Amino acid sequence: MSYVDEVLARIHAENSGEPEFLQAVDEVLESLRPVIAQDENKFRRDAVLERLCNPDRQIKFRVSWVDDSGQVQVNTGYRIQFNNAIGPYKGGLRFHPSVYTGIIKFLGFEQIFKNSLTGLPIGGAKGGSDFDPKGKSDREVMAFCKSFMNELYRNIGPNKDVPAGDIGVGGREIGYLFGQYKKLVKHYEGVLTGKGIGWGGSLARTEATGYGLVYIAEELLKCHGYDMAGKTVVISGSGNVAIYAAEKCTMLGAKVVTVSDSTGWIYDRDGIDINLLKEIKEVRRERLTAYKDARPECEYHEGRGVWQIPCDLALPCATQNELTEDDAKLLVSNGCIAVCEGANMPATPEATKYLQENGVLFISGKASNAGGVATSALEMAQNSERTSWSFEEVDSRLKDIMVNIYHNIDDAAKRYGLEGNYVAGANIAGFEKVCDAMISQGI
Ligand code: NDP
């Protein structure tokens, strides 16, 4: 049995209740086969893959808080510190009812390679809770965040582990978490990223994941002879990543015609009104039905369905496994040129394979959504220097990072005879740096 197959068998046996984690490991290890085959015995002796696929540590804790009726509520909190070979642990916190160990492990595992691809010194981690901020009052969200930090603070620090936002964790939640951390440790330090601009945050961090996604898509298209201007773009989601991806596409002259949330989706042939979308989602925190109310000429549909709309570029920006093989068939039959993942693992393995086999340019989230964490690392750098850079400076560094990531993954794929396979390219390029660091640092 090959070393990769041995490790896959062991990881599957030990994590059988965690399908999302197994899906992420399968994808990475399958594409590392040519790298491992170069010196299989050495990789096996050093147990590189077992060390990579088992987190350094998993922290799980109870979070008790009091709701507005006086009832005590109990949720579970997680922080999974996966790998710090190249820098302090770094990765977001997700607050969503679907969160359990397997989701946090999949996200933490992906984060190792993504952070490596940024070229910046950050290791991989992820955390969160099954708490659902939707429908909660501000006071309830604050009570939850403070209680969550009462446990988490012992395990994080600016040189140890620096969490950020993810689904359900935006500027408001980061503020409450930071306030409690500061109260507990009595230090004002850059322990979280995504902070407010007036208290240690970086300009362009809010925009970074969505903008970065569009920068890499633009470079991909350019290198294949296409221009962003005039392209029709289909986007799923209407959260942080989706909003700023839509904004940057529009700024570059493309037309974004869809957005979605967990209850329905909008098809606006004239192009999504970005200011209206921001007002509804960022300020009023309402559903997309409010968008339809404000623009009656657009279509609103319950459920899912954005991938049936003809487009040149598709940007899935909501959640994992939201783009299936059937969706991929619709995209191909409608002439889609490229799919770049804004969310983490939004395309199922079958969808990815179908798109790649049918000539659609495809970049996986590890590479294409790395702009968020890259800018978080720039926030850490600014905090360490006790300075803040202009929006233009951060944005221009972000663009350089995304263009470099594209060429890095393109080059890695070519080195292994896999030209055009950016999924393999991202996994290989991300792995090489982390693997070298792990081996250099010994057991
Ligand atoms: P937000 O919470 O801001 O937005 C998430 C969006 O996706 C919302 O529109 C939400 O709808 C929708 N959504 C979430 N879960 C589901 C579901 N199960 N089914 C259908 N729709 C769903 O999160 P972000 O925009 O920050 O994150 C989106 C994705 O991008 C995630 O995969 C995240 O891990 C990834 N990502 C985010 C980064 C960041 O910097 N924010 C960085 C890198 C990756 P609703 O409001 O109805 O729940």
Task: Walk me through what this model shows.
The chain is an alpha/beta fold and 443 residues long. The chain is 49% helix and 16% strand. The protein contains 17 helices and twelve strands. The strands form two sheets. It has a seven-stranded mixed β-sheet, with helices on both faces. A five-stranded mixed β-sheet has the order 1-2-4-3-5. Helix 2 (19-37) packs parallel to helix 5, helix 2 crosses helix 17 (422-440) and helix 15 (371-385) packs across helix 16 (391-415). The longest helix is centred in the C-terminal third of the chain and has 25 residues, at 391-415. It is globular, with a radius of gyration of 21 Å. The two termini are 25 Å apart. The mean pLDDT is 97. NADPH dihydro-nicotinamide-adenine-dinucleotide phosphate binds at residues 165-168, 209, 237-242, 261-263, 317-319, 342-344, 369, 372. NADPH dihydro-nicotinamide-adenine-dinucleotide phosphate binds next to helix 9.
